[in-house]
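Researcher: We plan to redesign the surface later, but first we want a full-length starting point. Tokens attached.
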């Protein structure tokens, strides 16, 4: 049996591994590359295999860096089945439809610029129809259910505790009458997280493919918890302001609802304040995702199930309101009562959160509370770093609200968690492949695994193929990092060209405006050019930042 690592090799995104034996070809994940223009450009590259030859995909979970290229796989000829857990199948629908929408918007935006620059137009990576088509290939199975995927292989999903539905894959393959077992960790979660069960430890494997996102880091012991958030709520309510929480629609938002529910339904010092305050979930995607959570209660952890058995709905309470329409969302801003608004996107780059920032950022009584990671260059990160004026819907908005940073635990196991999981194997597997981490993270974890457990892991750093039984490396097809570097230079040149064009148009239009030939239409044009310039500069900044980080 051969394994080919096609993604999550140089970094943490684009998870995709191909298993080949006796005429069978099976894919583990089919994720999207993310994190900057160069990485995104990688998604358009051909797959290092023929999609039409793939028999089935075994999907670990619904994060885009694990499932985001499935519609493209189908578009390029895949005819087989996509196996995943039921909760993953439910979340997949939300994720892929949202992702298709983003790709369509992205292509629209690029084509506006391409048209002006006389460059050829681009197609979106995939469309809504492609996403819908991909979803027809999904065949959900239960955790612990043994599923034959062909005449010589079967699979079992175990809870990975990373997001709802996430799985560690056990795969048995029989070749030449000999059966080998492959374990694919997917993304491993953290112990004692709300709602989710702890990651499952697997006892036996011949070959292990393991993620190492936090292979050289441990999460801080002392974490600002729910009570820190409730203290902020109390103070903000006292001032008569609104608490705005930008939050990822899938996962983090449901955890917040779960935590708020505890304080809204028990006796505690915050209860008096909370009874007067409504919590609004203002994100259609978060609302849909919460429905998926409610429909998949069978995979909750024991604590959450106990709530359910007590007749409590852990994802609902009296003061919780899901807004449905745009009108309901807008009405929140006219309402002057202190309240809590949880909205997406989590990094404030798009979505309804931007309306709430527009209406609250200038208000010294309000609080903006960040509960998740904020990437470089995003509005969220800029606010955390002390931005004093934001541009929202073309208007400057002064930042007078209090900005708080309460980043909770990451959804990924840290170094100790990874080691704990690896210790679960009762016998050392024949081979341990480390994927899904920055190179330093993989190498540091490899050293740790050697020192502590006597492993000699194979660190995967580019597209490469191995023969499993002999451990022999068969080929290195391309150096992914070199491809990314080339793309980066290409994207930088394009962006610099766009900035150049925008500056020229700005100078020309503003000269006309100064000379008296200024109409409203012209001013709107100037404003649009400035917005484009702003976005391009941020993009260039983030491409350069990626480059610096590597150096
Ligand atoms: Zn993930």
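Model: Full-length starting sequence:
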């Amino acid at each position: 049996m051969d394994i080919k690592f096609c993604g999550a090799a140089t970094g943490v995104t684009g998870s995709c591994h191909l298993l080949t034996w006796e005429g069978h070809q099976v894919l583990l994940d089919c994720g999207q590359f993310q994190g900057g223009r160069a990485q995104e450009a990688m998604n358009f590259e051909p797959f290092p295999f023929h999609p039409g030859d793939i028999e089935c995909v075994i999907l670990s979970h619904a994060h885009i860096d694990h499932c985001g290229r499935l519609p493209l796989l189908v578009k390029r000829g895949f005819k087989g089945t996509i196996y995943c857990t039921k909760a993953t199948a439910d979340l997949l629908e939300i994720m892929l439809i949202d992702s298709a929408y983003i790709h369509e918007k992205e292509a629209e935006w690029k084509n506006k610029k391409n048209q002006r620059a006389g460059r050829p137009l681009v197609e979106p990576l995939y469309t809504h129809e492609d996403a819908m088509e991909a979803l027809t290939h999904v065949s959900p199975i239960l955790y612990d259910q043994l599923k034959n995927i062909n005449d010589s292989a079967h699979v079992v999903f175990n809870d990975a505790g990373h997001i709802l539905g996430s799985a560690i894959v056990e795969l048995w393959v029989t070749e030449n009458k000999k059966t080998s077992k492959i374990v694919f960790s997917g993304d491993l979660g953290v112990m004692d997280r709300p709602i989710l069960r702890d990651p499952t430890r697997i006892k036996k494997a011949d070959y292990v493919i393991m993620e190492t996102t936090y292979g050289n880091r441990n999460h801080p012991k002392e974490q600002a918890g729910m009570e820190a958030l409730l203290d902020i709520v109390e103070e903000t309510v006292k001032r008569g302001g609104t608490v705005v929480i930008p939050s990822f629609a899938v996962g983090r938002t449901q955890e917040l609802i779960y935590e708020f529910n505890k304080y809204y339904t028990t006796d505690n010092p915050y209860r008096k304040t909370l009874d007067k305050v409504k919590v609004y979930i203002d994100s259609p995607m978060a609302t849909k995702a919460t429905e998926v959570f409610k429909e998949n209660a069978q995979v909750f952890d024991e604590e959450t199930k106990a709530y359910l058995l007590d007749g409590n709905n852990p994802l609902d309470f009296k003061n919780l309101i899901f807004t449905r329409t745009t009108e309901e969302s807008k009405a929140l801003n006219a309402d002057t009562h202190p309240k809590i608004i949880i909205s997406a996107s989590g990094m404030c780059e798009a979505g309804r959160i931007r309306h709430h920032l527009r209406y609250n950022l200038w208000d010294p009584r309000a609080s903006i509370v960040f509960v998740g990671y904020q990437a470089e260059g995003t509005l969220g990160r800029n606010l955390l770093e002390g931005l004093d004026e934001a541009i929202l819907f073309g208007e400057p908005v002064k930042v007078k609200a209090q900005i708080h940073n309460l980043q909770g635990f990451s959804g990924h196991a840290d170094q100790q968690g990874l080691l704990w999981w690896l210790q679960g194997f009762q016998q050392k597997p024949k081979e341990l492949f480390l994927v899904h981490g920055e190179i330093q993270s993989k190498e540091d974890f490899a050293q740790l695994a050697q020192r502590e457990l006597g492993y000699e892991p194979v660190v995967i750093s580019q597209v490469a193929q191995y023969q499993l039984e002999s451990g022999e490396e068969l080929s290195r097809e391309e150096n992914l990092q070199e491809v990314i570097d080339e793309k980066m230079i290409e994207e930088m040149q394009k962006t610099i060209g766009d900035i150049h064009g925008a500056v020229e148009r700005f100078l020309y239009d503003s000269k006309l405006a100064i000379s008296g030939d200024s109409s409203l239409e012209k001013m709107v044009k100037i404003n649009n050019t400035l917005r484009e310039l702003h976005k391009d500069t941020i993009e260039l900044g983030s491409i350069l930042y990626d480059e610096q980080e590597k150096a």
